[in-house]
Fold this protein.
Amino acid sequence: MTLPAAPGLRGLAVVLSVTVAAVVWRRRGQPGAAPFALLMLAAGEWAGLALLEHAALAPGTKVVFAALEYPGIMAVAPPWLGTALYLSGVGVLGGADPTPLAFALTGVVFAAGLFRRRLFDLVPVARHALIESMADGVLVLDAEHRVLDINPSARALLGLSSAPIGARAEVVLAAWPAVVALAVGGEATETDAQGETPTGPRELHARIMPLRDAGGRSRGRLLVLGDVTERRRTEDALRQSEKLASLAQLLAGVAHELNNPLSVVIGHATLLRRELGNAPGAARVERIAAAAERCARIVTNFLSVARRRAPERASTDVNRVLREAVALLAYQLELDNVTVLFDLGADLPLIRADGHQLQQVVMNLVANAQQAMGEHEGSRQLLVTSRLDAGRGRVTFSVADTGPGIPIALRSRVFEPFFTTKPVGIGSGLGLSACRGIVEAHEGVIEIGDRPGGGAVVRVELPVGEPPTSAAATGPVVEAELIRGQRILVVDDEPTAGDLLREMLEADGQRVEVAAHGKAALDRLAEAPFDLVISDFKMPLLDGAGLYSQLAMREPRLRERFIFLSGDTLSAETRRFIERSGVPILEKPFDAAGVRRLVQRLLRRA
Ligand SMILES: Nc1ncnc2c1ncn2[C@@H]1O[C@H](COP(=O)(O)OP(=O)(O)OP(=O)(O)O)[C@@H](O)[C@H]1O
Ligand SMILES: [Mg+2]
C-alpha cells in the first residue's frame, strides 16, 4: 500500500487506520463463515473527533507533525496486524485475540518515537532560554511571596550574586518597597518605582501578574522588572529641549524688542557717566548701567542656551576680552569691595574665536564669582589668569574667587539650564549653561576646580585655531589716536537707536547723520559723500541687504566701510548673506566702547 505523499493526508490515513483497528470493525459472530465477510463497518465513538482534530492541525503544522507520523504509522501496524491475524483464524496466542497485546506494543512504540524525536521538548527549552537572556528582570514568587525562580537580569538589577531561592520578596526587593506592596496585593498591575541599586539610583517599571492554577486559585506572582532609567532620562532631555525650543521662539521676538530699549539705557548711561565724571549722581548712573547690563546678560544667556549659534570667528585677543569683561563689571566689583588681580600670559597669540561670545562667557564667570563672594565672609579676591599651552596649541584662562566654592556633588549640575541655588531675581541658572554651550561650540573645554585656600576656579581651554588671515584685530583704541571728523551715515528706522549711535559717534568727534530707511539713505548718499555707513537690517522701503547691494554698485569704496546692526533675529539666509559679504556686525545692545572699536577699525582701512 502506498501512502499519500502530502503529510496531511498521510496523517489522515493514519488516524483512520487507528480508528479502524480500535473501534470500527465489529464481528457479526456467525461461526464458520469466511472471516472478512463477517465484518461490518461502523464508525467508532471517537472517529469523528479524531478526524476533526487532524483536520484542524494539518494545515498549520504539516512540517512539525510530519515527523510524528512515522512513529504513528509504526504504532498503528501491530493492532492492525493482530486483528487481521485473529480474524483470519491464524492462531497465534493459542487462538486468543492478540489485539489488546498489540495495543500495548503500540503504546511503547509511540512513546519511544516521541521520546526519540524530542519534538515537544524544544518549547520549554526555548522558553527557558528566552527568560534567561531577557533584558528585563523576571521573578516568580509563590503564594507566601517567596522567590521560586529569578533570571540573571533580575539578579543583576537587584545586585544579588546568587539566586535567592526561598527568600522573601520583602528582603530581596528591600530597595523597592512600592513594588513589594503591589506584589503582595495579588492583583495584575504595574507601577514605576525609584530605588538604589549597586550601580546608583535607577528607575524601574514593574509589571505584576498573579499566577493561578486550573481551579483559578492564586498560587503566586510573576514579576517583570524593566530598567527604564535611560529611557526616562532621554524623555526628560527631550521634554527639556522641546520646552527650550518653544521658549526660544517666543524669546527671539521678545529679545529683539528688548535689545533696542536696552541699547538705549546702556548707551545713554555710558554717555552720562562719561559726562558726569566724579560729579554727584555718577553713582546712580553706574547703578542704572549695572542693572541694564544684567538685563542684557539675561537676554543674551537665554538666547545662547535656547538656540546655540555658531561662533562668528575672527582673530581675538583673549587678554583683551578678559580685561574688558572685568571692566564692564568693575562697578559691581567695587561696590562689593572685591580686589581684582590679573595674571595674564604675555605670549598669548590671537585665537580664532567669537570675541562677543567669549566676553559673554567671562562676564558670566565674573558675575558668578562676585555673587559667590558677596554672600561670603572673609577676603574678596578675584583672580583672572591666562596662559598659552604652546605644545597643544591651546589658550587657557581661568576666573578664581575666594567664595565658598562649588560642592563636588553640584559640579555637573551647575551646567544644566535653569539650575540655580540663588533666589529668584538674583539667578536664572543660565550663566554656566550658556558658557558651556559657547565654549563647546569653540571646541573648547570648561571645568570647575577648587582654589587653594578655598573658593572656586572655573577654567576654560580654547584651541588657538588657524593663524589670522587678515590684520583685522586691533589693540584697544587709545583716545589720542582716534580718527575724528569722519562723515558717518546711520540708517535705522528706530529713532532711539539711531539717535543713540549718533551721540556715541559724535562724542568721538564724528559728523553723523541719521536716515530712517535704505531709500532715504541712498538719496542722502547721492547728495553728499560719506566715509562710513552703519545700517540696521530690517527696515521699510529698502532693507539693509538692499542698501548694501545698491551701494556696492554705486560706490564700491563704501563696501569696505559698511557695518550692519543686528538685533538677534537674523534668519539663516540673512546670516549667509552677511557671511558672503564679509560685512562686520554690531550686535545690539551695543556699548560705546564696542561702537568705537569697530568704527575705528573700518576707518583705518585704506
Ligand atoms: N564661583 C562660584 N562659586 C560658588 N558657586 C557657584 C559659582 N559659580 C556658579 N556657582 C553655582 O552654580 C549655579 C549655577 O550658576 P549659573 O551661572 O549657571 O546660574 P546663576 O548664577 O544661578 O544664574 P544666572 O547666571 O543666570 O544669573 C549657581 O546658582 C551657584 O550655585
Ligand atoms: Mg551666573
